[in-house]
């Protein structure tokens, strides 16, 4: 939920954890079930009232029913990856007529997976964090990290499978089982997420973005983006930009 918080507004977590990203803040706020956070300044915030059952299915060691306080720290510095995900989600929420259920599910999963990796992974020596999780396979988590590091449509999936020590068929089966997406679909969604982040910020030309994502021609990128999102990149940029932001010439 994207909302404007006034000073002294309270955000409360009832039975499930809540996560708050405040615009312009360098920290993420974690609220355990039964606790609350009092806002101090007027800010726009992205507030996630997470579903406890969904968290337990994906990350049982971190969010077991017996663990009423999964977050040991109330605040933590936000990483560049998590900031990008939160900002892209905010853009997508504001432009929800372009948002698909598949892309929303992907971004929410990426956000929660990144939060677990970043803030919870080092806390459970006696009960390994990934035990029982569908992300338990280290090879698939490594593949996800490699895909995130450089989303590029030119990426060779056979080479990626080899890098993580799996045959092509076994890699595809495990990846689908762990993430709910095929490796190619996952890569496409990462490319769209990167594109939306850049387009909404107004940084650079669309031709440059197209080349960075591995497209041999801008027209190929435009067709790919339109198939995935429903509008051309230039139209999405106009919809996501501030009223005083001009679209680049020639797009």
CATH architecture descriptor text of the domain at 2-136: Sandwich
- Estimated helix fraction: 40-55%
Mean pLDDT: 87
For the record, what CATH class of the domain at 2-136 applies? Mainly Beta
The CATH topology label of the domain at 2-136 is Jelly Rolls
H/E element sequence: EEEEEEHEHHHHHHHHH
Question: What amount of the residues lies in strands?
Answer: 5-15%
Number of strands: 7
Rg estimate, integer Å: 19 Å
Q: Which residues sit in consecutive blocks of at least 5 with pLDDT less than 50?
A: 243-251
Largest sheet: 5 strands, antiparallel
Strand order of the largest sheet: 1-6-3-4-7
In whole angstroms, how far apart are the ends? 32 Å
**Structure class:** alpha+beta
Gross morphology is flat
Helix segment count?
10
Describe the structure.
The chain is α+β, with helices and mostly antiparallel strands and 251 residues long. The strands form 2 sheets. The protein has a 5-stranded antiparallel beta sheet, covered by helices on one side. The longest helix has 20 residues, at 101-120. It has a domain at 2-136: Jelly Rolls (Sandwich), CATH 2.60.120. The chain is built from 10 helices and 7 strands. A hairpin with a 4-residue loop joins strand 3 and strand 4. Residues 243-251 have low confidence and may be disordered. Helix 2 (80-94) runs antiparallel to helix 3, helix 7 (183-201) packs across helix 10 (233-240) and helix 8 (206-212) crosses helix 9.
């Amino acid at each position: 939920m994207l909302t404007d918080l006034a000073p002294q507004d309270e955000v409360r977590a009832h039975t499930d954890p809540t996560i708050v990203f405040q615009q312009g803040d360098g920290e993420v706020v974690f609220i355990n079930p039964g606790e609350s956070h009092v806002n101090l300044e007027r800010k726009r915030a992205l507030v996630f009232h997470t579903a406890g059952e969904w968290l337990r299915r994906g990350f049982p060691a971190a969010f077991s029913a017996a663990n009423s306080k999964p977050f040991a720290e109330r605040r933590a510095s936000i990483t560049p990856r998590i900031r990008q995900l939160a900002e892209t989600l905010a853009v997508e929420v504001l432009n929800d007529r372009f948002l698909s259920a598949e892309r929303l599910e992907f971004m929410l999963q990426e956000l929660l997976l990144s939060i677990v990796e970043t803030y919870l992974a080092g806390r459970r020596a006696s009960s390994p964090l990934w035990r029982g999780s569908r992300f338990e396979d280290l090879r698939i988590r490594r593949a996800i990290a490699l895909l995130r590091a450089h989303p590029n449509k030119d990426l060779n999936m056979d080479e990626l499978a080899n890098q993580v020590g799996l045959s092509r068929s076994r890699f595809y089966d495990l990846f689908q089982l762990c993430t709910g997406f095929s490796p190619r679909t996952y890569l496409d969604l990462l490319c769209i997420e990167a594109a939306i982040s850049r387009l909404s910020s107004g940084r650079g030309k669309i031709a440059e973005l197209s080349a960075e994502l591995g497209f041999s021609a801008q027209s190929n990128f435009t067709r790919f983006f339109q198939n995935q999102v429903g509008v051309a990149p230039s139209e999405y940029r106009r919809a996501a930009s501030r009223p005083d932001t001009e679209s680049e010439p020639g797009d």
